[in-house]
Amino acid sequence: MSTTTVETPAPAGEKRPAGAPGRTRRRGEQSRAASLASHAVLIVASLTALFPVAWLFFLSLGPDKDDYLHPGRIWGKMALDNYAFVLQDTNFFHWLKSTLIVGLGTTLIGVVVAASTGYAVSRMRFPGYRKLMWVLLVTQMFPIAVLIVPMYQILSDLQLIDSYLGLILVNCTTIVPYCAWLMKGYFDTIPFEIDEAGRVDGLTPFGTFARLILPLAKPGLAVAAFYSFLTAFGEVAFASTFLLSDDKYTFAVGLQTFVSEHDAQRNLMAATAVLIAIPAALFFYLVQKNLVTGLTAGGTKG
Amino acid sequence: MTVVIDRATGKRRGEREPRPGPGRRLKNGFHKHWYAYAMIAPVAIVLAVLVLYPLAYGLYLTLTDATSLNTARTIGVNEIDATYKFIGLDNYADILWGPTAYDRFWSHVLWTVFWTAACVALHYGIGLGLALLLNQKLRGRTLYRMILVLPWAVPTFVTVFGWRFMLADGGIINSGLELLHLPTPSWLEDTFWQRFSAIMVNTWCGVPFMMVSLLGGLQSIDASLYEASEMDGAGAWQRFRYVTLPGLRSVSTTVVLLGVIWTFNQFAIIFLLFGNTAPDAQILVTWAYQLGFGQQPRDYAQSAAYGILLLSILIVFTSFYRRWLNRNEQQLAI
């Protein structure tokens, strides 16, 4: 033990004697050892983050459904057959269509409905304000278990089971309050003086909202839209319950169909998973910067 | 003191205009705030129709013995009317202290609480660690950040299937362990390891959000605070303890609350990782779903009752959390 401690250079700057030889380190710079350690930890973490996805991709190249148990065999016979099969002979494009309809529908309703509320709770204090905020917060944390049974009953009364509209409406239960919160956070960052100026110039509150604030809030609206879309895209419980026919499944449900009790076509499943994951991840990376600032805007302001 | 003086003169009350009646007040309030109400109307309507009405309906269902066998349904051309009946609070009594209460409810409550605490602690701990590492001047930190966000970028339902391949008997993880001559647990069959894998997968999925949020928080801390504390002779630990942590407080309180709620309600990971095969690794949410949709006959009433209980737990938790925040003079920054 003692040898190791002697060999490692002092990790933190202040431990170094004042007159020590060598370059003086500036603030924020690190000793070599500390920076090596940082890199080591980050590399391990990155590999951990990367591996499951990379592995999925690797398995998707193996043509047999049990290849995931013998990954070594894949090397010799790598092929894109799985992808060809998934694209040509499964319901992949039906699922894509469903996912897009449900995702975009939810996004549209969520953003349109929630925008004015976000503005109202950001700027106005009216009787019932606190109650409304509380309802918005509580609705976001509804476990799916609370609504799923009554929703199932209601939708089946309305003959909306197995329809896109039903699923969009159900998704809206969580999306609408969340969008309202998100947009309130964004509207809070727009200076109040703009509203005042608008009012002085004779605009009504609606006019201020529609003509001054909404155009300024486009990035905020975009964040809410991205978030709604990604949420609807990845939603599992409602989609599994309310969609019944194979060609109406969203990706989240469709992907499960490859593994049934009798048969597990894991190779096809892996290929489909990759086909879903790549565009989703690309989209996420495109929007992530906005998404992250949007989600934490309220938080970081302190 | 003022009160006494007011009483003494006995005037204040008389001088004030008479309070308008409730109808009048409503009208005044409406006059003053009607645009606010008009603006929240769309959300209020959507919430009333899509949330409150189903919630009330669900509450009613919990007081009945509705299952898929006695609710209204259509078989072929025959329409069968609902025959379930009102049974009062029997469902709740049965869940909370019926003969199978421990096996079905309380054991799941314990596991859910443990699951939530463990996952959020891991998310926060690892997320904070990585955020601190990424917040220093380091070569390639943008690349690291991009890679580390990946678990968040890929939809959860996709990654869970990836993990299922890895955790399967003979999957890559067990092959690797075998190579190292370590024991190879059956991750997806054994109760303990099921729970272990569930926490592991959820941690993997949840860390990026925490990391990114906390990184944002770290970057918003004023650098001069660090300089000042360094001038005062604060060591690395002291700077962390007295500058970083307080600076992160408002982000932390928010992400921890969100983390608790999300983890408590986490459906996709456990549902997709195990399906119906793991009764003991189900958390309350997935268990309620299984009662309502994963078995025959479907027990709608009990499932809804579970839902109501779950919601109550969350509301109680959030109320206490907010009160605790208020007592410490912090605001929830959602």
TrEMBL record, chain A:
Keyword vocabulary terms for this entry: Cell membrane, Membrane, Sugar transport, Transmembrane, Transmembrane helix, Transport
Domain of life: Bacteria
Keyword RNA-binding listed: no
GO molecular function per UniProt: ABC-type maltose transporter activity
Annotated ABC transmembrane type-1 domain residues: 96-287
Chief location category: membrane
Matches recorded under Gene3D superfamilies: MetI-like
Entry membrane topology: Multi-pass membrane protein
Keyword Cytoplasm: no
Region (Disordered): 1-30
Compartments, as annotated in UniProt: Cell membrane
Listed transmembrane segments: 33-58, 100-121, 133-152, 164-183, 221-244, 264-287
A Gene Ontology cellular-component term: plasma membrane
BP terms from Gene Ontology: maltodextrin transmembrane transport
Family according to the record: Belongs to the binding-protein-dependent transport system permease family. MalFG subfamily.
Stated name of the protein: ABC transporter permease
Organism of origin: Streptomyces qaidamensis
Automatic annotation (TrEMBL), chain B:
Bilayer topology annotation: Multi-pass membrane protein
Compositionally biased tracts (Basic and acidic residues): 8-19
Domain of life: Bacteria
One Pfam short name: BPD_transp_1
Claim: Transmembrane helix is one of the keywords in the record: yes
PROSITE patterns xref list: ABC_TM1
Spans annotated as Disordered: 1-23
Residue ranges annotated for the ABC transmembrane type-1 domain, each copy included: 109-321
Protein name from the UniProt record: ABC transporter permease
